[in-house]
Amino acid sequence: MTAPKIFRPDLNDPTRPKRGLTEQDLAEKATVYRPDLLDGQTLLITGGGSGMGKAAAFLAVRLGANVAICGRDVEKLERTRDVIAKETGKEIFIQTTTIRDPEAVEELIGSVHDKFGGINTVVNNAGGQFPQDAIDFTRKGWLAVIDTNLNGTWWMMQEAAKRWRTDGKPGNIINIVANVERGMPQAAHTCAARAGVIYLSKTLATEWAPFNIRINCIGPGVIETEGFAMYPEEALARFHQANPMKMRGDAWDVAEAIAYFASPAARFINGDLMILDGGQAQWGVIWPGGMPDYFNEGGAA
Ligand SMILES: CCCCCCCCCCC/C=C/C(=O)SCCNC(=O)CCNC(=O)[C@H](O)C(C)(C)COP(=O)(O)OP(=O)(O)OC[C@H]1O[C@@H](n2cnc3c(N)ncnc32)[C@H](O)[C@@H]1OP(=O)(O)O
Ligand SMILES: NC(=O)C1=CN([C@@H]2O[C@H](COP(=O)(O)OP(=O)(O)OC[C@H]3O[C@@H](n4cnc5c(N)ncnc54)[C@H](OP(=O)(O)O)[C@@H]3O)[C@@H](O)[C@H]2O)C=CC1
Known about the structure:
Blueprint: H1 23-28, E1 42-46, H2 51-62, E2 66-71, H3 74-88, E3 93-96, H4 102-116, E4 121-124, H5 139-167, E5 171-176, H6 188-207, E6 213-220, E7 223-224, H7 233-239, E8 249-250, H8 251-262, E9 273-276
Helix pairs in contact: 2-8, 4-5, 5-6
The protein binds ligand L4XM7KOE and NADPH dihydro-nicotinamide-adenine-dinucleotide phosphate.
């Protein structure tokens, strides 16, 4: 019997390089937007304690928004709140929440609503997965990835929409998915979940239009963040080769796309998917668990 290939990283391993933008970058990086673009808007960003969510929170605050973030790890949330306060003088709202628990999600939407008097945009960014050949997924592993990325996003969408319907207020949902147009070997669980979110979003863009709720998705390709710690170094060394531009994006690329979708400039965009991947949808493939011989040039046909 072949043993399943597993990479279970120690996320606190001090020998691995730190990845992603620094907090100084997030405080200082230039933005194309005017400083009051999101004045008076409230954004709730899931997974805002790291990576793209943290960058989006920073940028939204810098553009004048009220921001709330959630995640499972309170230390990450507190650190983000404190550094944003230090760099911008503005206090964001944090609440420890797993998006996998619908009751916790209901509480979160209620608290953010009470804190800021409403929510304009929900950014469903929380998510993740582990690299593995699908044939070796455990049942628990499959369920964990589907529950986080599909169910968790759905609970957020439904609770926010119910609140907007009750209040008679417009709503805006931005779902961070992934570039799954050609599938993604060794990431079948997340592909299934993200494809589910994309078509959920397209469907509800019509169904919820009478409530004045818009829904769009952003599909990032390889974006260098703290989340890279989930992958082995030998795979990371090849990640940038998986698109025609042969580069990695950064969290600011995604944060600026989120700011665009949160702004009035996107008022007529609904049910769309923005792919932000340097062309990976056209060319390039990542094998985060190692490429099987079959796909090597000269491998078995
Ligand atoms: C998947 C490969 C992607 C391809 C790489 C291409 C890169 C470019 C394209 C970009 C794709 C996306 C990249 C990113 O998303 S980077 C950001 C990554 N960040 C995260 O993933 C953070 C959040 N992730 C998690 O919290 C977890 O991964 C998870 C989603 C699984 C939820 O975790 P939870 O805490 O609920 O679950 P557990 O850790 O307790 O695990 C539950 C069971 O899941 C199985 N499991 C978990 N980890 C692994 C592993 N490394 N390998 C194999 N199986 C795993 C296992 O059955 C767990 O149960 P047990 O603990 O009882 O064994
Ligand atoms: N980086 C990349 O190349 C790509 C990333 N993505 C997706 O983009 C999103 C952001 O990723 P990125 O910034 O790179 O990685 P990170 O790992 O930094 O961000 C993921 C965030 O999700 C939060 N999270 C995970 N599970 C839950 C949960 N059950 N409830 C609440 N929060 C949760 C984590 O917070 P905490 O630990 O506190 O729970 C963390 O802050 C993810 O959905 C990711 O899968 C998609 C394509 C490419």
